[in-house]
Design goal:
The complex is a heterodimer of chains A (266) and B (275). Chain A has 266 residues and is an all-alpha fold. Chain A has 12 helices and no strands. Chain A has helices at 7-30, 47-54, 56-87, 92-107, 110-123, 130-153, 158-166, 171-200, 203-208, 216-225, 230-253, 258-263. In chain A, helix 6 (130-153) crosses helix 8. Chain A is globular. Chain A starts with 6 loop residues before the first helix and ends with a helix. The mean pLDDT of chain A is 88. In chain B, 77% of the residues lie in helices and 0% in strands. Chain B has one domain: MetI-like fold, CATH 1.10.3720.10. Chain B is built from 13 helices and no strands. Chain B has helices at residues 2-6, 11-31, 44-51, 53-86, 92-100, 107-118, 123-130, 144-169, 172-180, 185-213, 217-223, 230-241, 244-274. The radius of gyration of chain B is 23 Å and the shape is globular. Classes of the chains: A mainly alpha (266), B mainly alpha (275). Chains A and B meet through helix 1, helix 3, helix 4, helix 5 and helix 6 of A and helix 1, helix 2, helix 4, helix 5 and helix 6 of B.
């Protein structure tokens, strides 16, 4: 078989990469541009980052975003680990059902999930609070942690744990000495991915955040609505940086399982 | 039995899903049958939706937009996935990773970057002007085209992954066999390669089409007044008009559409798989 990439193939790759990256790179460059109106010629400045550092409202939003993402990452890591280990002991049919239920938020538009939680809050007579935002973030981020963990656990030999148990190790010892060392990297990677999903989330926060409390994506949305400054370019650049760091960590940890992870099965 | 006890580890996650996805959906369903004026049980919300031509047209144009984004994504993703799976060697992992990174970057940042990029007087505008392709304003921003550009950008990368996976699993000797039996390149593609890649194509189609149906950020920001879709109308019900129960009914219509298309695409993918 001919394994050469022709001219059109190369052209396609270049065009796709341009389409994917040019707007983002332009935005990042503009965050270092002096003009208030994103106009050229390009004059280098870090002025907008200095403005950012003095903007207490944006810093508070950043704190909210990070706090939510951190909580989501930790909780998803724990829930996903328990679930993935436990589901192996379910009967085949229940296993399929349970798995499709926990993966649901990946295929339902987040608009619907955010709205339905909002309606539940009203139905039960509660008021909007950070608690519900966090719960919303957790259910939508959980599938991503599961995806990462499943890629690792499916290659884990169940008989190792059984052997450890039959040799008299307590369940806790078995987990600590056999299971945990094998899946710890995937737990961490899954946690990071859920952190990222929560950190980037707009729809859930938008519907559930109490009035007056912002996250960074909400901040960007409202600045688009009410007129923006290059400060938003700067904060966007920082957000992209955080995403890249998270993705790099996940990628490095899951290097050998990357394909199983992306494909959602082994 | 010992075996069953360990399966209890699945309960915390299931409890979360029950409390914060399944029960809310049930409540949304119940709410959609309540009148916005009196709060009594009624069919009026659904009647209002299905008898008003505006909402029917809106549903149609949302479906059309999602279809357009899906077709364009397929036209980009399939050739790219094919080249990666069958032509490239060392570089393919790099390109796969580069393709998928934007999928996991902030949605709002991505939309905002398109806003800056496409606006009149923006970078693209200047580029076109310097080549003499545009006299003054481009006029792309705040049109349906801008929405389609933004949505495709948001969702096609994952389609590349699903198609790539399907093509990579495929045994190359099948292609060689077909060619050596005298089939043309086109016949080989049509009768051998494409059917085998179909499950990957269908899950890619689902991954693009379904989120497009429920999108509201890209249409609102990049489409402006021309970006009205089901998602933005639902948003307005909750943030501007305060017709929450009617909003719940529209959201449920959207949810039904999502389920219908997911089921249909899934069935289509499985049919090809068994053949």
């Amino acid at each position: 078989m001919n394994r050469k990439t022709g001219f059109f193939g190369k052209l396609l790759i270049v065009l796709v990469l341009l389409y994917l990256y040019v707007p983002i790179v332009v935005l990042m460059l503009l965050s270092f541009n002096e003009s208030r109106y994103n106009s050229l010629p390009f004059k280098f400045t870090t002025h907008w980052y200095q403005e950012l550092a003095a903007d207490t409202e944006l810093i508070n939003s950043a704190k909210n975003s990070l706090l939510l993402a951190f909580l989501t990452g930790i909780v998803c890591m724990i829930l996903a680990t328990f679930f993935i280990l436990g589901q192996r002991y379910l009967a085949k049919r229940t296993q399929g059902l349970f798995n499709s239920i926990v993966m649901m938020p990946m295929s339902i538009p987040w608009l619907i999930i955010g709205l339905s939680i909002l309606l539940m809050i009203r139905f039960m007579g509660f008021s909007k609070s950070m608690f519900f935002v966090a719960m919303g973030h957790i259910v939508i981020s959980l599938p991503y942690s599961l995806l990462v963990l499943r890629a690792r656990v499916s290659s884990l030999d169940k008989s190792l744990e059984e052997m450890s148990a039959s040799l008299g190790a307590s369940p806790w010892t078995t987990f600590r000495r056999v299971t945990f060392p094998a899946i710890a990297p995937a737990m961490l990677a899954g946690g990071f991915l859920s952190f990222l999903i929560s950190f980037d989330n707009f729809p859930i926060s938008y519907f559930l955040m109490p009035n007056g409390i912002f996250t960074l994506p909400i901040e960007i949305q409202s600045s688009i609505k009410f007129g923006f400054t290059p400060e938003i370019n700067a904060i966007s650049t920082i957000i992209i940086g955080i995403s890249l760091v998270c993705l790099t960590v996940v990628g490095l940890i899951m290097r050998s399982n990357l394909k199983a992870m992306l494909g959602g099965k082994d | 039995m010992k075996v069953n006890k360990k399966s209890a580890m699945t309960w915390p996650a299931m409890l979360m899903l029950l409390c914060f996805t399944l029960i809310p959906l049930l409540i949304m369903f119940e709410t959609s049958f309540r009148s916005d004026e009196t709060g009594t049980l009624t069919l009026e919300n659904y009647k209002k939706f299905f008898t008003n031509f505006m909402y029917i047209k809106l549903t149609g144009s949302t479906l059309l937009m999602s279809l357009l984004v899906t077709v364009i994504s397929l036209l980009i993703a399939y050739p790219l996935a094919y080249i990666m799976a069958k032509k490239l060697k060392g570089l393919k992992n790099v390109i796969l990773v580069l393709t998928i990174i934007p999928f996991f970057t902030n949605q709002l940042v991505r939309v905002y970057s398109w806003l800056i990029f496409l606006q009149d007087g923006g970078i693209l505008n200047r580029l076109f002007m310097s080549f003499g392709l545009a006299e003054n304003g481009l006029g792309i921003l705040y049109t349906r085209a801008a929405v389609v550009i933004g949505l495709t950008h948001a969702f096609f990368p994952y389609m590349v992954v699903t198609i790539y996976m399907a093509l990579e699993r495929m045994d190359d000797s099948l292609i060689e066999a077909s060619m050596s039996l005298g089939a043309s390149k086109w016949t080989t593609f049509k009768d051998v390669i494409f059917p085998i890649s179909m499950p990957g194509v269908m899950s890619g189609v689902t991954i693009v089409f379904v989120p497009c149906l429920g999108s509201f950020v890209e249409p609102r920001i990049l489409g402006g007044v021309n970006g009205t879709v089901i998602g933005t109308v639902i948003e307005d019900q909750f943030f501007q008009l305060y017709g929450w129960n009617f909003g719940a009914a529209i959201a449920f219509v959207l949810f039904a559409l999502v389920l219908i298309f997911m089921g249909a695409f899934g069935a289509l993918g499985r049919r090809w798989e068994t053949e």
